[in-house]
Design goal:
Layout: H1 14-18, E1 22-25, E2 28-31, H2 34-50, E3 53-55, H3 57-64, H4 69-81, E4 85-87, E5 102-106, E6 117-118
Organism: Klebsiella pneumoniae
Protein name: Helix-turn-helix domain-containing protein
């Protein structure tokens, strides 16, 4: 994972994403599991470099070190549910036949997490 975030434009604050234990979404506290943070941080780093992101579950597994494609698919659904990523719909058939990749827009405006976050707890 050492080169996972190489090439990001500064000031990309990846560690701030990895330090978010939970966030406030529509008045509710939502726990942000570590694996979800890693996938979101990876997606945000790609968006920082390239704008819209085109990835497959397999490529995210490979780059983040996760074992199960199904787990990554579930994480993507979770991130979509909380509007952290959004599938990009195009009016053209440029993606026709490319079922293995999907284009996403990442909700990480100005390198800041889009929701109010709660600080990490020091309790064990």
């Amino acid at each position: 994972m050492s080169d996972l975030f190489e090439g990001c434009k500064s000031p990309f604050r990846i560690w701030s994403v990895l330090d978010i234990p939970s966030f406030i979404y529509e008045g509710n506290t939502i726990p942000f599991p570590p694996q979800h943070r890693i996938v979101f941080a990876y997606m945000a780093s790609l968006a920082n470099r390239y704008g819209d992101v085109r990835v497959s579950y397999f490529s995210v597994c490979k780059r983040t070190g996760m074992d199960e494609i199904e787990e990554v698919a579930a994480i993507f659904k979770w991130l979509e549910a909380f509007r952290l990523i959004k599938r990009k719909v195009t009016l053209f058939d440029e993606d026709k036949g490319k079922k293995e990749t999907t284009r996403y827009e990442v909700n990480y405006p100005d390198n800041q997490f889009p929701y109010e976050t709660l600080p990490p707890s020091m309790e064990r």
